[in-house]
Design goal:
Strand order of the largest sheet: 2-1-6
Largest sheet: 3 strands, antiparallel
Radius of gyration: 16 Å
Shape: elongated
Helix content: under 10%
Structural class: mainly beta
Length: 153
Amino acid sequence: MPPDSAADTAQQLVGATADITTRHNGAHTAALIYGHHAGRLVLRPAGEWVQIDADDITAGHTHDDTPLADRRTVRVCDRGTSRSYEGITIRAITLVWTCPACGRPRGEPRNGRLIEDGEHYHVHIWDNPCGHIDMYGQCLIEAGVHATRPVKT
């Protein structure tokens, strides 16, 4: 079954080597696709980092013999996506363990504690050596838990 959208295609390509064709007749052979973040696919063809809008992807063909990227499962805080207060859910998500902004390795996750309305929640926290900050909301988008934009029905 084909993916429902370009974002679905991008999410499926994370962690693989792939040939990608875009609407603008751009062709990329990525050594490794590092992440899908904020509607953009982060990849490295020919040693240079490139970001492609997920909406521009028309075809992506993966190479089956490629080892998967380093991934980690972490617990993060999910406050939902509506404008009203939905409460807090702690979700375990799996991320490609590279910074979506620059592709360098993320920091080591460690246990942290979040206090909200007098309740204590256990989450993972990490500091990226590159200095980029991973916001939980963006991590949830990267993991495919939340859409990058509202879904039209």
